Amino acid sequence: MRVRFWTAPAALAVSALAVAVAGCQQQQAEQPLAPVEVLVAKVEPRAVALTDELPGRVVAYRVAEIRPQVGGIVQQRFFEQGAAVRAGQPLFQIAPAPFRADAASAGAALKRAQATLDRARVQVERLKPLIGVDAISRQSYDDAVMARDQAAADVAQADATLDRRRLDLGFARVTSPIAGQIGAANVTEGALVAVGDANALATVQQIDRVYVDVQQPAQRFEQLREASSGTDSATSAQVEIVSASGRGHPVRGQIVFSDVTVDPGTGNAVIRVLVDNPGKLLLPGMFVRARMPRANMPSALTIPQQAVSRDGNGQAQVGVVDSQGRVHTRSVKVGDVVDGRYVVLSGIRAGETVVVVGQDRVQPNTPVKPLPWRGTAASAR
Fold first, then answer.
1. Nearest-CA neighbor of 353 among 41, 39, 38?
2. Cβ atoms of residues 270 and 213 within 8 Å
3. Is 291 left (phi over 0), alpha (psi -120 to 50) or beta?
4. Strand 253-258 relative to strand 192-193: parallel, antiparallel, unpaired?
5. Which residue, 364, 306, 304, 358, is CA-closest to 330?
6. 33 phi, psi to nearest 5 deg
7. Which pLDDT does position 73 carry in this prediction?
8. DSSP string, 285-353
9. Could you read off the pLDDT of 220-274 as tens digits, one per residue?
10. Cystine design at 155: which of 4, 42, 113, 272 (Cβ 3.0–4.6 Å)?
């Protein structure tokens, strides 16, 4: 067996090398890490309005089914299908000759009744002085007075009949009760129509303003009342209407009605929203989405969505920059997203600074060089 002995020069060389390595490691340990550039945002309170986006259906503000009040043959149509009509505008003409004849007959009956009344009055005036001198019996005079009163009743009846016949003659010209947009005509010239027909002649809908009926959970209605503008009624709450294509309606709606009945199958109640409809962009029957106000938070703490990450358990967390410029990971509880920002419910305080862009490049307690985050344009850097 061989035994090796270190010579003095070799031992000194090894010792010198060990001292050099130890010194280098100490120098590296003492050298500070270079700060990492990150984009940060300060947490400040701001007013936030929370909303629920719910489906709704457009309903015309007013709907008038045009139906005949007298029967007969349709002679003429006065409107263009799909056009705008005004209140009182003639739409259809039903053959007026039979009603004109009925009115003439009623007029003749009124004249006959009036003549009978005049004769009865004259008879009473003749008999009145004779009753005082016992020239006629009291019974004869009473019969004359009764005949006069009966003739007066016949005149009133004939006058009412004439008014009715004139009404029927007027009803032969069918007019629109409201202003609005008229749809397709369901009858043509020559068609026989009658009172009580199942189908209307046409339908007029007023759509310069419309209703949007929204199904909302009943338990949310109390929050909706609280979200109204400082009143106990939800009728002042403003609602944003979004079309099926995602385009917002230019005018916000106003809640005017809430059904008092809750659907037992769904637990929803109907909320009716009144919306001005310039340009008639909203048509009856369309399905839209309504952003219903749920709560107003005057001093909510919000942070950009990019600032929030998730750990392995799905817990939301953010990187908070302390006063020494170091990042610390902190768990937070977040709520709704409003305009691209999370509403923070707990875990952070106003005035603190969070990392928005670059949190994946830093470790806990890592020094950073914070730069202000200026929205989506800054996040693209």
1. 41
2. yes
3. beta
4. unpaired
5. 364
6. -75, 145
7. 96
8. T-EEEEEEEEEEEEEEEEEEGGG-EE-TT--EEEEEE-TTSBEEEEE-EEEEEETTEEEEEES--TT-E
9. 766 666 555 454 444 456 889 998 888 889 999 998 877 777 878 787 888 899 9
10. 113
**Residue 241 phi/psi, 5° resolution?**
-105, 130
Burial of residue 224 (number of CB atoms within 10 Å: 0-12, 13-18, 19+): buried
Domains, the chain, with CATH or none: 36-51+299-379 (2.40.420.20), 54-61+207-297 (2.40.30.170), 67-193 (2.40.50.100)
Look up residue 49 and give its two tokens.
């309005």
pLDDT, residue 17, reads: 54
Helix (H) or strand (E) holding 136: none
pLDDT above 90 for 84:
yes
Average pLDDT of every residue of the chain:
84
Residue 24 backbone phi and psi in degrees, to 5: -65, -40
Question: What residue type is 82 in one-letter code?
Answer: G
Q: Can you give the pLDDT at residue 228?
A: 55
- pTM of the full predicted structure? 0.67
* 341: exposed, middle or buried (Cβ count in 10 Å: 0-12, 13-18, 19+): buried
